[in-house]
Amino acid sequence: MHDAWSSREVWTFECLHCSTTWDEQIEIRHFGDGHGTELVTYERGGQPCTTPWSDRACPKCQSQNVKAIASRNRRVAAIPEARPNTDTDVALVYHLRRIHAW
Asked: By CB neighbour count within 10 A (0-12 exposed, 13-18 middle, 19+ buried), where does 39 fall?
């Protein structure tokens, strides 16, 4: 069985040529094969895309000189409440440590 989880993040981009700033929502999906190998994919608007910090062009001047800033304090998805059953939480922590995700 493969492990998979995803998160949505808002990234702020700034053009270093014309000083235009804009935000993009990126969905990041993590896939684990159960043997410690992890694959990460990125989607923007439902379409696969490159990493948020590479290959961006300014929508105003089309300059490739763009800086990406991860806006970690502006997460879109809310953090879920803790589950009352602590036995499965402990098993999950051991599993995450085994695949080096924690």
From this structure: exposed
Can you tell me which residue has the tokens 């993009």? 24
Residue at token pair 């300059």? 63
Mention every residue, 6+ apart, whose C-beta is less than 8 A from residue 50. Answer: 42
Under the banding of pLDDT at 50, 70 and 90, the label for residue 56 is confident
Q: pTM of the full predicted structure?
A: 0.57
**Residue 44 is encoded by which pair of tokens?**
């923007």
Residue written as token pair 């590479």: 54
SS3 sequence of 13-50: EEECCCCCEEEEEEEEEEEECCCCCEEEEEEECCEEEC
Give 64-81 pLDDT, tens digit per residue.
999 988 776 554 455 556
Q: What span, in angstroms and rounded, lies between the C-alpha atoms of 38 and 53? A: 19
Kindly report the number of other CB atoms within 10 A of residue 98's CB atom: 13
